[in-house]
Amino acid sequence: MLPLAKLVDSFVTPARHGKAGIHTGFPEFPGSSKSLLKKYLTKEVYNQLSKVKDAHGFTIDQLIASGVANPDSNVGVYAGSTDSYVNKNNFKC
Fold first, then answer.
1. pLDDT in tens, 2-58
2. What is the per-residue DSSP string for 15-49?
């Protein structure tokens, strides 16, 4: 697992998230959230990306973990590697 992914895993609590400490499935946000993640992540986009991993194994659930755990954050999306930014077959952060 990438160091960033381990760090993200350490910040989320198992009671709120799946077995690995990461929320799985399309997230729900409080109505008061002004997060760009909430605004732009649709179920369609989530479902499409849920089948994708970057070259280092980073998943959409890891990508959005911070934003799901902190719905008051402005963005809440962190790429797992440079591959998440540049590879046309991956997340395109």
1. 555 555 555 443 334 444 556 778 998 999 999 999 998 999 989 988 888 888 888
2. TTS-TTSS--SS----TT---HHHHH--HHHHHHH
pTM here?
0.67
Identify the CATH number of the domain defined by range 3-14+33-86.
Answer: 1.10.135.10
What distance in Å separates the CA atoms of residue 5 and residue 51, rounded to the nearest whole number?
Answer: 18
Report the alpha-carbon distance of residue 87 to residue 14 in Å, rounded. Answer: 31
Task: Please report where in the chains the tokens 């399309």 appear, as a residue.
Answer: 26
Q: Which of 53, 68, 79, 71 is nearest to 18 (CA)?
A: 68
